[in-house]
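Researcher: Here's the sequence for the chain we discussed earlier.
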Amino acid sequence: MLRRIRLELARTKDFPEGSTHHGYEFVAPLTADHHLDAELWKKNRQVCTVHRFWPGEGDATGQLVRTRAGHWAFSYEAGAEDDEPIHRLEDHRFVEGEYVGIREHDGQTRPFKVTSIRPVPGLSPQV
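Model: Thanks. This is the structure I predict for it:
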């Protein structure tokens, strides 16, 4: 089932309390046990989008992609130069309160907390 997943910046040196103003929202298919469904993603790539929100840098939109090495990333333009790899995404359970590490375009890996998971109205995954 397709879900809209919101990740917000967790505690870091620069943001000791985390930040609700820095993060990502993305659409991805999840299995019944809350893992990314790679097979369903293959059939629904076009709707697996990401929205990065970060004050002072402007918003960015892109896609959830699979790299040549088989890893997952957020990509905003063609080519791998701007890709933001997601550490072991295939192992994550997407439930509220869990954490995900993302290596952002500046080369830093930051922790993000899953703050919400909701159905995506109007989108039915292709099976």
